[in-house]
Design a protein that fits this description.
The structure is a homotetramer of 452-residue chains.
Chain A lengths: L6 E10 L3 E7 H7 L2 H4 L21 H22 L15 H10 L8 H8 L3 H10 L4 H9 L3 H9 L6 H7 L5 H14 L8 H7 E4 L2 E5 L3 H19 L2 H21 L2 H7 L5 H4 L5 H5 L3 H11 L5 H11 L5 E4 L8 H10 L4 H4 L1 E7 L17 E3 L5 E3 H4 L1 H6 L4 E8 L13 H8 L2 E2 L2 E2 L7
Helix pairs in contact in A: 3-4, 3-10, 4-8, 4-9, 5-13, 6-8, 10-12, 11-12, 13-18, 17-18, 19-23
Chain lengths: 452, 452, 452, 452
């Protein structure tokens, strides 16, 4: 028997709090889970700094990746029971696509690194290209296993993840506006944070999915379940993912890494700072093997080292990150943006290096969008299929979805040390603090008399 | 206003998946949560290697500690509403005890370190004495905050944790056979693992607790809720905490640290190995500050370093730990114990250093015990209070509890490399493997012809 | 001690699947629950014919009424802890209002009868005026108990329910667009039907409520929790309360009662039909005592009697109702409405009495509305209170709510015997059936060639 | 295509709060659900008078029956995937048995009547023999549908329910100490009462079931899940099913029916009492058609009639039942049983007819029992199957189960009017009340000085 279709004699399960069981019936899947590259995801939190606000959000990209696999498996099962293809080109489900779908689902996040987005921003790495590398390069266990299925199998799996795989059903399962990835993270993040916004009726959504020639559509009688999912996603962004305090921790992290990089580039610090596993990244010269050694704990370990490093910006930022002392923030908008230079100046006057102690941070998300061919990366729209086969784009028939469709939600915030807003404290800096706070009202920057 | 009774003008909450909200109304509690010593608990998993089997078990000692605080707060509330003291010595609840109870609840685990039990075993540290140090030494933020309540307040909090505090109600809230600690960890571990064994009816248990002169008793009409809790605890030990695979990872960890310590003591490795933050522990000469720098991520970081270290035992064990390749096990008992030397010898013959690749591991727990004054550490028994005030020890009136009372449950296992049981593989070592496996039947060592 | 403030020495609880425990600490509340008028609510289903579609929806108005009481109790507790009045007119919470609020919450539905809306329609009863009667007339146990609190207490409770009580906070707790009644029924109906649409974050909504001079407002940081509640309510109407099949059962019930009333008015049936407990209603001459004898089971009992009654319309409709054979439906709109006469005529031709076997049924709901003084019954709008005290009406700051605000949702349907659409059956009526179905496409009436 | 294997082109689902969806893929099952005999189960509460204590327990035998069907369906699926038969006599699962298993599961309770056990006791009916009749007699829709599958199919289904069907796997699915019936009612009753005692890990129990030659066994690694189920069942009996107050309502019901029957037998009441649908039962001469007309609502309707009947025992008992005023109780045992005559005499002296106002009520259950061929109805024991195929009876390897195995749990209680224990009331009967209460201590009868 070849490796590809090698089914286990008895299904193996992983206990999961969200899906109850993750069910595996291919040896390939078990072997992929057991690779060092995949096991490494256990050491990377799914939500980064979010657990500084929602303390239960301690789950890893490992558990999420298993969840995406499981939802994909359930979609394949449903398609195979209810919509099996009869002849090529009939737009129904071809179960030969199952294994590539499952592998892509499992591996879609395998290139993620420690504190992903912040790290990428500072060190110019790209988790998507690394995902591709991990799958394609013969040096990884992942590639070696995938290659046993068929020589071209790694390339197939990679093409699903980067949307170039020819079968749109497989691509949309893993990546679309309502895919296994988003469905798992909403449910899992809601479960672990203890919020309810992310909950939606997964069983019903899965039940109303159906394959068609151009991908996946949703039965008209399940429109409200899809609507509920879109609203849930919108609310998770508003309430959890964009939380200003969690972004305040992200800003600290970003400034901390930026300071370390700056110091490393100074001759007198170069030698003494030397964070062994980060050096290739400071040097802009890293291998995949270097990348795969990083995880949240490695970064935190260097932050612990830096607590004692003789640079007050570095050791203070390290302490703020480890002891959870985020920068504080106020909202601003184009009309109040011109207050920022003066607020930065006041922060400097109060003794803070404004380069490291102030920041602007945006968080915006497009909760849902109908297809717009002129967009930079046009999104696959959600299609509702009527009983006579007619397709309607979701926002065209749902008032709720139309209300949030195509509109960016989020805000733009100015971050600064919390101490700046402590006007009660009668210190030497009190007048500066008071002037600083005259710019702020109701959590937002207000136009200032001086600037008007 | 003094610090001690400084209540917040509006309750502050932390969202929690198990208790929905953790409610805080004292500034002291908020300040303790914000200390570096307490924040460090975010970086230490509550269940150590258990997440290698139940992958959802990624929660930290931080979230658990908040949970213990919250349950204690709820007990105090219930006692204050229903059983407030009228006069000294009436055995009812004195709400002046609330703050010491809450602080002890929050801090009871603060001395825990990375991979606690294994680490303690190898490096001879003791988390209980460190908890006491953190609370008592003026160098910690925790002590500084507690001291602001009253100069003797740190000592009071510490005495609750080590059971010498005079009020038995406060002590039993935090530490007894049915305390806030156990109640939180059962619910939280069940929630995160996705198992249901740990679930019991917390609201009802809390409702039937009542203070009396010698501590805390349970109303007779709530006996079954307490019974259910005992059975849940028994089953979590059987099914989750004693899981043989998770113990197989613990064995790998233990051997890995043991090997590193051994190498460090060799002159030619001393210099090259040098895991900066662990050196004080290798040297048996560490400060509290050294201890507080450790966490799971720090240890994992050194394991990543060791992947490349030129000692095949060290780098292989590091890889096994990081990539989740536990040692395998079989049960044995006194009558089959004499097979172990030969099985160890065969493991050596197959090329493994038996000192590092075989181990014996016991896991035993006493699910419940009535008071036994002759025991090494006699346990506070659970008292059921009848409507006429009479007390009955739980196991004397519950068949279910009597069935598991005073009986150790658990097993003794022999661990070895999984490869030893791979008899299908036709390798050079196949005959050795076959001989090794002739000692094993149905997951346990069987008496061997040679030894009979 | 007077009766009014007579608190129980120990809180009494009722186990509840939605709120875990219903907590009672006033003797008055216990006594009201024990009245025959309140116990009767156990025999009236909360959702009438909905259980014919969502079979779990078997819960009664009794459990819902306890739930409304419990949510009201929790609101009072929160208000008393966080917003206790300091001086008259400060717009904060006066806890002397607690008992009237609790009693009104408990009793708000006490006038509901069997299959309420349908029954009222046929027999011209009015559950609101009966609620008032039960509270006000000295012949009821409910009135006798309320009168013991104070002679004017029944009138106070009644005035809360009919919105004339002077304190707007108390009125809005029980009756507004986000009140204890709606919050309980959404959660309870979701729990029992097993749908998730009705779920929202009750704990958070309660936490962000605050009293102010003109009623109850919601803290700005809780806006999304309120938004989520509005969306949940919208979806429960769409998916559960307006379900076309459940309305098909309601139509059968309505026609059945209408036929019985018609027959009773015929001399030759008058004597033989005689449904003892319904006669006062057939005669348009009933007392409160007559009304309180009715419940779902009484009506069903007469339907069982009528299975054998020698009128084919009556016995067939009774059988349809008891054996769950709803009329079928299609949507129509003003442009297709003119097909109805011909479709009714075809139904007659197929042998059905169109008066009893066809019907038009509308279901429309206003999910949320800002205050419109010109409306027939203007609604209290939901106010979001900013940190500087400013009030914003919800839909003015929520895109989601604006999307469904002020718009009626629902549909208009034509009901007919399911047999009419059974075109596969080659019967004598087949041509009629085929002609009938030529009017229908995709679940709606389509404009017909004949009519164009 | 014949009717038997007529699978639906697309699965039909019923939304269920316990199992999420009930999935149906046979037309036969849909048709059985639509019969009047099965729909009637909607009007019979699963737990009778239990909802007087746990008010959420309002669910019907209809929803339970669907649940038993669904669990059976899941067992068949698991067996077919993992243990399909290869050749006759191999002890594995033959999927041709699926339809008979599903039908038997769905119909196993179809003979239940209103307030089943109490009614049977008074009127000498037997729901098991009626179940058989409904399935076997050509006058029912149920039989007509089953007969279309095959002429001998009704007899097969009936034989599964009465344990004479030759395939022990099918019989044990529906009826054994761990069957689909018990599993559904534990979960459903726990869900609706809001208690947690009945919860156990259904998914895991189903996963570890396997067919073998003599029926169904459980994999050794799932032993704790089975143990947990047994303990849950034990606790539901203790806490919910045997609740003394709910039994106090049952006693009222029993006495009420007994009084009505007595009066009916008196010439002067015969005519006036005349409860139309009950007459055949009063006359000991009823048909199946008579039986199928009864439900909870019909009985309650007559109780409402009787509120006005001029017999003070009858109208008072009716009022007690409808307004939830149960008889009160105390425990007794063989050593205190001799106090009963005097307590009954005192009740008479206080003006109550002791025949109708006092009662003895036993509730005993055998939580689990190993097979005992000498028992009146020997039970199928639960077999745990080891990895080498060896079977162990559950209680032989589980301390917990052994603790409650073969031991009857429950109690024996004496019921009397609550007024008898109201010693605070200074009435004419006060001395009698006081004497009565001198027999009672701590909720049980105590040996009385007079009797010693």
């Amino acid at each position: 028997m070849t490796y590809a279709p090698q089914k286990l004699t008895r299904e193996k399960v992983f206990r999961d709090p969200v899906h109850n069981y993750i069910r595996v019936d291919y040896q390939v899947i078990l072997d992929l889970i057991d690779t060092p590259e995949f096991q490494r995801l256990r050491r990377i939190k799914q939500l980064g700094t979010t657990s500084s606000v929602f303390q239960g959000a301690e789950h890893s990209r490992f558990t999420h990746s298993l969840g995406v696999y499981e939802i994909t498996r359930q979609i394949c099962d449903q398609f195979q029971i209810n919509y099996p293809t009869k002849q090529p080109g009939d737009g129904l489900w071809n179960d030969n696509e199952r294994l590539v779908a499952l592998c892509a689902a499992l591996l879609h996040d395998i290139g993620h690194g420690a504190y992903s987005h912040t790290f990428e921003h500072i060190f110019d790495t790209d988790h998507e290209s690394i995902t591709r590398q991990i799958i394609m390069t013969p040096e990884t266990k992942v590639n070696q296993i995938l290659s046993q299925v068929a020589p071209d199998f790694p390339a197939k799996v990679a093409s699903v993840i980067d949307h170039t795989y020819p079968n749109p059903q497989v691509v949309q399962m893993i990546s679309s506006q309502i895919d296994a990835d988003r469905m798992d993270y909403l449910l899992r993040d809601a479960y672990n944070t203890g919020t309810k916004y992310g909950e939606f009726d997964l069983t019903r959504v899965l039940r109303v999915m159906r394959p068609y020639a151009n991908g996946i559509a949703f039965l008209a009688n399940g429109m409200h379940a899809v609507e509920d999912y879109i609203v849930s996603r919108f609310q998770m962004y508003q309430q959890v993912y964009f939380h200003p305090v969690s972004r305040g921790m992200e800003v600290v992290l970003q400034k901390l890494l930026q300071r370390a990089k700056f110091l490393y580039e100074q001759p007198d610090h170069h030698q003494s700072l030397a964070p062994q596993l980060l050096i290739p990244f400071f040097e802009h010269d890293f291998t995949l093997r270097d990348y795969l050694k990083l995880d949240d704990g490695v970064l935190n370990t260097y932050f612990i080292y830096w607590l004692d490093y003789p640079d007050t910006v570095l050791n203070d930022l390290a302490d703020r990150f480890l002891s959870r002392r985020p920068l504080k923030s106020v909202k601003f908008n184009p009309s109040t943006e011109d207050c920022l230079p003066e607020m930065r100046a006041l922060t400097e006057q109060a003794g803070y290096n404004a380069t490291y102690y102030t920041a602007v941070n945006n968080s915006f998300d497009l909760p849902y969008d109908a297809y717009d061919p002129s967009a930079k990366s046009p999104k696959t729209q959600i299609e509702i299929i009527q009983s006579d086969g007619q397709l309607n784009e979701l926002s065209s028939i749902s008032n709720l979805v139309a209300a949030i469709s195509g509109k960016f939600s989020g805000d733009e915030r100015f971050y600064f040390p919390k101490e700046m807003s402590d006007t009660a404290n009668l210190e030497v800096f009190a007048p500066i603090y008071q002037q600083f706070n005259s710019y702020i009202n109701n959590g937002a920057i207000q136009a200032h008399p001086h600037n008007q």
